């Protein structure tokens, strides 16, 4: 992988310059770049709905009501399987509920973990109310201040793909911030938690079963 | 005489391949935490919240690494939502060990008040839980609870009673309590 130029980095770091992206489009772009059974943990609500809509993979985990735990779950997977790349898709409201987890990731430094912060400025699934970060919090700057220097805003779709490639080809932990528009999700995940857990464990090679699935 | 409670716990964790130990510290857990950090078998670290530790152990369990969260009673009281919606709903064997504060000589009313929420919460979640009060039962209870959780794909909680650990003594001893 070619190192990023200073110019590109400077551009991507500016939250206010980042293009408003469409979550489903970005989720599809991410999934299209996964070729090695990378694990993807979708956080509460719309972050996992669009992961589901982007086409189910056995290495996807779709969380339910444990708001804020996409990054911790992904960290657990990353620690258990250091050879596998792991992506966490977390909403801004959700991350605010568990900001401390960024410090844990920075301390443990799992090389195989990437965190995508889906920043639409709101709690979209509960009606689009503004988050308490409306005063101007910058999640990429927060991640950096927590000790995660490989953190950048995606300037546009192309830049997002470049940042995903960097996650796939270099050691992390990585953080990508995505400024999102206010479009809703493309579908709704089937809510059957034991089935989802079972498929995920098979997808990670942890569970073998003669039951078809 | 024989082993201390924390030595027994370390042995049983190792025998059951429970390696990942995220925790929010507690004074009574100090010797256990120290022994776990001293042993390269374990991956142990602090988390900012107990919820976070539950998420980490749930993720690791699904990816093939067993873990247990250490916390005190007040930490358990922050967990109902994530326990219900993650290990209970998805049937993931998240193990928890709670140092029991708030009873049998508690000096802090806040701890005593939150203590009363622990058993009702465990019962409302229908979560397997056992209180360890005696040294001679410690190995059996810890070992069997861990095994059952793993085999049935269910979370479980082990409560360390002050009867086992000695608990945390009042910082100001009552008059006349000394010298006996
Ligand atoms: C502890 C807790 N509080 C509140 C909720 C209700 N809730 C579910 S999703 C959600 C908003 C999620 O916001 P965000 O992560 O920003 O994702 P978005 O909806 O914007 O995609 C809220 C408040 C919950 N599930 N758990």
From TrEMBL, chain A:
GO terms for molecular function: carboxy-lyase activity; magnesium ion binding; thiamine pyrophosphate binding. Residues 180-213 are annotated as: Disordered. Signal peptide: none annotated. Residues 49-176 form the Thiamine pyrophosphate enzyme TPP-binding domain. The keyword Coiled coil does not apply. Residues 189-201 have a biased composition (Basic and acidic residues). GO terms for biological process: small molecule metabolic process. The chain crosses the membrane at residues 61-80. Gene3D superfamilies: 3.40.50.970. Keywords: Decarboxylase, Lyase, Membrane, Thiamine pyrophosphate, Transmembrane, Transmembrane helix. NCBIfam families: PRK06163.1. This is Thiamine pyrophosphate-dependent enzyme. It comes from Roseicella aerolata. The lineage of its organism: Bacteria, Pseudomonadati, Pseudomonadota, Alphaproteobacteria, Acetobacterales.
Automatic annotation (TrEMBL), chain B:
CDD domains: TPP_PYR_POX_like (cd07035). SUPFAM superfamilies: Thiamin diphosphate-binding fold (THDP-binding). Signal peptide: none annotated. One of its GO terms (molecular function) is thiamine pyrophosphate binding. It holds the Pfam family TPP_enzyme_N. Keywords: Decarboxylase, Lyase. InterPro entries: THDP-binding, Thiamin_PyroP_enz_TPP-bd_dom, TPP_dependent_decarboxylase. Residues 7-102 form the Thiamine pyrophosphate enzyme N-terminal TPP-binding domain. This is Decarboxylase.
């Amino acid at each position: 992988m070619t190192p990023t130029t200073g110019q590109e980095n400077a551009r991507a770091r500016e939250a206010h310059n980042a293009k408003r992206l469409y979550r489903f489009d970005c989720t599809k772009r991410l999934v299209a770049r996964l070729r090695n059974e990378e694990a993807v943990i979708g956080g509460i609500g719309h972050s996992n709905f669009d992961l589901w809509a982007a086409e189910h993979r056995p290495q996807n985990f779709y969380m339910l009501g444990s708001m804020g735990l996409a990054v911790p779950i992904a960290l657990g997977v990353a620690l258990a399987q250091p050879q596998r790349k792991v992506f966490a898709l977390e909403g801004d409201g959700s991350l605010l509920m568990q900001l401390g987890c960024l410090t844990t990731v920075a301390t443990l430094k799992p090389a195989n973990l990437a965190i995508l912060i889906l920043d639409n400025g709101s709690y979209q699934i509960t009606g689009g109310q503004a988050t308490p970060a409306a005063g101007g919090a910058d999640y990429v700057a927060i991640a950096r201040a927590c000790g995660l220097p490989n953190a950048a805003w995606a300037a546009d779709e192309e830049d997002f793909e470049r940042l995903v490639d960097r996650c796939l080809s270099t050691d992390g932990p990585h953080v990508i911030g995505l400024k999102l528009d206010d479009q809703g999700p493309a579908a709704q995940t089937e809510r059957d938690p034991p089935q989802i857990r079972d498929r995920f464990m098979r997808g990670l090679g942890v569970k073998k079963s003669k039951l078809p699935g | 005489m024989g082993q201390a409670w924390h030595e027994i716990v370390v042995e049983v964790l190792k025998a059951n391949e429970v390696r990942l130990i995220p925790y929010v510290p507690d004074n009574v857990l100090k010797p256990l935490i120290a022994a776990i950090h001293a042993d390269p078998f374990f991956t142990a670290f602090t988390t900012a919240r107990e919820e976070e530790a539950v998420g980490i152990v749930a993720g690791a369990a699904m990816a093939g690494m067993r873990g247990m969260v250490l916390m005190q009673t007040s930490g358990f009281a922050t967990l109902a939502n994530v326990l219900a919606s993650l290990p209970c709903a998805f049937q993931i064997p998240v193990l928890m060990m709670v140092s029991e504060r708030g009873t049998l000589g508690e000096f802090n009313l806040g701890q005593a008040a939150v203590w009363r929420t622990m058993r009702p919460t465990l019962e409302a979640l229908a979560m397997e839980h056992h209180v360890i009060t005696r040294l001679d039962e410690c190995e059996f209870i810890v070992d069997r609870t861990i095994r059952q959780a793993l085999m049935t794909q269910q979370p479980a909680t082990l409560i360390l009673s002050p009867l086992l650990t000695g608990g945390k003594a009042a910082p100001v001893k009552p008059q006349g309590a000394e010298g006996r």
